[in-house]
Design brief:
It contains three helices and 34 strands. By secondary structure, the protein is mostly beta strands. The protein has four domains: about 80 residues, SH3 type barrels (Roll); about 80 residues, Sandwich (Immunoglobulin-like); about 80 residues, Immunoglobulin-like (Sandwich); about 90 residues, Immunoglobulin-like. A hairpin with a 4-residue loop joins strand 24 and strand 25.
């Protein structure tokens, strides 16, 4: 019994020496430290309803203010504002503090001091044309690659024209908007993208589905766009075989050698609309493609057949008898050694000169009359023809 009392006394004495404030505390009963965050200088981050840039903005945290950390979710921290509103802020705009229940910013250990800031944001494109109702996806490259917080905040300069969410841009109405991608780590790194929202082309029409040319002759095609309110009425032209017929940026086609190819026009907006026309290059002596310029106020339907071309050589033989044969009746005699178009198609013109009944010379010409040189039946055809006439073009031979 005395031995037990002695052992107890020794234990109590050792306990007082090692733990003067009383008996030893359990090693795992230390109170959980309170964690707080301080908003970085110069930052006033948005406080959102959920941990995402899609969350509704509930307010803003104040620069250099200290808030209690309520919860975390990946790269987002939940805090409580002075008015009691609770919400989420991006973690790149804050510094974390940790300590006991009475810890303050001045005596806390800083855990986020070694975070790597974003230095540059590079978007995959600087500008684009986007049709109303369509979407495009912007991709951002962040440097350095080891940046701690790569979250970006996307903002549109005019949300009535273009909306943006996580880099996805949608066209809403005609106009221009600037999309901004901004780092959320307080680095102020930013990138810009300009988008032109357009009313798209829905159809492109050409008057002639097929165009026949002679080598070394040209013809300019003029497309009609539907709807007439389309924002961009331009076409990128290309030829399936430039050696047979080439086309320039204005739609001027040049025949080079006998053969067939296809000319394609693609709308310059993002509608994807295109039109094609078949080209045939043949060895014609005459190609009549359109009527002569029409005087102001003159009826189009009655004026077009005044277009004429002259024969070389034949009518200079005034001392001889002259005979002209018009094959297929695609052209007729306009007098004074000239011919006029009568109907679309291919034909031949044979001219014979005689002296006292003896044939002295013969001429034979191949001729092609395009539909554009004959009566225009529809408003659309007339619109095409007027565009050509008032651009200063006449028939081509």
């Amino acid at each position: 019994m005395k031995k037990s009392i002695s052992l107890l006394a020794v234990f109590l004495m050792l306990n007082l020496l090692l733990f003067p404030s009383g008996l030893a505390e359990e090693p795992f009963s230390t109170p959980k430290p309170i964690t707080k965050i301080r908003i970085n200088e110069g930052s006033n981050p948005n406080v959102r309803s959920k941990p995402s840039t899609d969350g509704e903005i509930l307010g803003n945290a104040k620069s250099e203010e200290i808030y209690e950390l309520l919860a975390t979710s990946e790269n987002w921290y939940k805090i409580r504002l002075e008015n009691g509103t609770e919400g989420w802020i991006a973690n790149g705009m804050v510094t974390i503090f940790s300590g006991g229940s009475n810890s303050t910013a001045s005596n806390s250990s800083v855990f986020a001091a070694d975070s790597v800031k974003v230095e540059e944001i590079i978007l995959n494109q600087d500008t684009a044309v986007l049709s109303i109702g369509k979407m495009l996806n912007l991709k951002a490259t962040i440097t350095p690659a080891k940046a701690t917080n790569k979250n970006l905040e996307w903002v549109s300069s005019d949300e009535s024209i273009a909306a943006v969410s996580n880099g996805k841009v949608k066209g809403l109405s005609e106009g221009t908007a600037i999309i901004t991608a901004k780092a959320t780590d307080g680095s102020n790194a930013v990138a810009y993208f300009t988008v032109n929202i357009v009313n798209p082309v829905k159809k492109i029409t050409l008057y002639e589905p097929k165009i026949i040319l002679a080598p070394d002759t040209t013809w300019e095609i003029h497309p009609i766009f539907t709807p007439i309110s389309a924002t961009i009425k331009d076409v990128v032209w290309s030829s399936s075989n430039d050696k047979i017929a080439s086309v320039d940026e204005k739609g001027l086609i040049t025949g080079h050698k006998v053969g067939n190819c296809t000319i394609t026009g693609l709308a310059q907006d993002d509608s994807g609309c295109k039109v094609t026309v078949n080209i045939q290059v043949k060895n014609f002596d005459y190609v009549i493609r359109e009527p002569a310029p029409i005087p102001t106020g003159l009826n189009l339907a009655n004026a077009h057949q005044s277009s004429t071309v002259s024969f070389p050589g034949f009518f200079s033989h005034n001392e001889y008898e002259r005979y002209v044969s018009y094959g297929n009746d695609v052209v007729g005699d306009a007098g004074s050694g000239q011919i006029k178009p009568l109907k679309a198609g291919e034909g031949t013109i044979e001219c014979v000169a005689k002296d006292n009944g003896r044939v002295t010379e013969k001429w034979k010409y191949s001729v092609y009359v395009a539909q554009s040189a004959i009566s225009m039946e529809s408003d659309e055809e007339i619109q095409c023809l007027e565009a050509r006439i008032y651009n200063g073009h006449t028939y081509q031979v």
